[in-house]
């Protein structure tokens, strides 16, 4: 695979450090990567001068995690200026909102007797995370060897911390339009991530009409038919086509069987030739 433009690091809900992601890219012959952590840019910033990194080109990126009608609505931003003041304020607010959403769900489940585990331990065992999600709840419980009565921690995550789960509680969060606006304010290119997960093509088209500039066509969750559909939409509208494995290391979904299992197979995609001062 030539490029994998959807990787997560320890700065959000991945288990690999940014340095490890670079090593994996080199080991697997991947020439271009984008570390697109959820609502965070610390992973990219930890690498220092991106233009000085040998062998692998790194595109500065982010994945802004929005929700619409209890469905994932994520927006990738490529070539962002992470130091843009409006952008910095936005992702700081998103981190606070996500952490509060996680805490509300956590406390609701604990009050129902689903588990007896303190929120304080979640925070204590994830000291460097500005944004706490269900992944970090599970990580803390697993580190403490805490067993949730009657279910695995993975089942707990799926039932309470995924938007589609019956125990999920939707609280106020940024909209897809907000995400598009702030990525553009930071000089970036907004791309709708894994559009299948939106479960509403009309919503996807609405966001494209609003100003999203690309689709993540190649994603492990997409069937060949879905990939063909999104590729046709991108071609018809003159959009950027992107792709990546949505790599989370030890937190990978079953369909992510190896590094760069999905991505861009050649350097011929327009997203790879887009440039700004930050990549």
Overview of this structure, please?
By secondary structure, the protein is an alpha/beta fold. The protein has 2 domains: 3-91 and 176-273, Alpha-Beta Barrel (TIM Barrel), CATH 3.20.20; 101-161, no CATH class. It contains 10 helices and 7 strands. It has a 7-stranded mixed sheet with strand order 1-2-3-4-5-6-7. A hairpin with a 2-residue loop joins strand 3 (57-68) and strand 4. The model has no long low-confidence stretch (mean pLDDT 93).
Helix/strand structural class: alpha/beta
Q: What fraction of the residues are assigned to beta strands by DSSP?
A: 15-25%
- Low-pLDDT ranges: none
What share of the residues lie within helices?
A: 25-40%
In total, the number of domains comes to 2
* Biggest sheet layout: 7 strands, mixed
**What is the CATH homologous superfamily assignment of the largest domain?**
Metal-dependent hydrolases
* Shape-level CATH architecture of the largest domain: Alpha-Beta Barrel
- The largest sheet has its strands arranged as 1-2-3-4-5-6-7
Count of DSSP H/I helices: 10
> Helix and strand string, N-terminal first?
EHEHEEHHHHHEHEHEH
N→C terminal distance: 20 Å
Q: What's the level 1 CATH class of the largest domain?
A: Alpha Beta
- Shape annotation: globular
Computed CA radius of gyration, to the nearest angstrom: 18 Å
Quaternary organization:
single chain
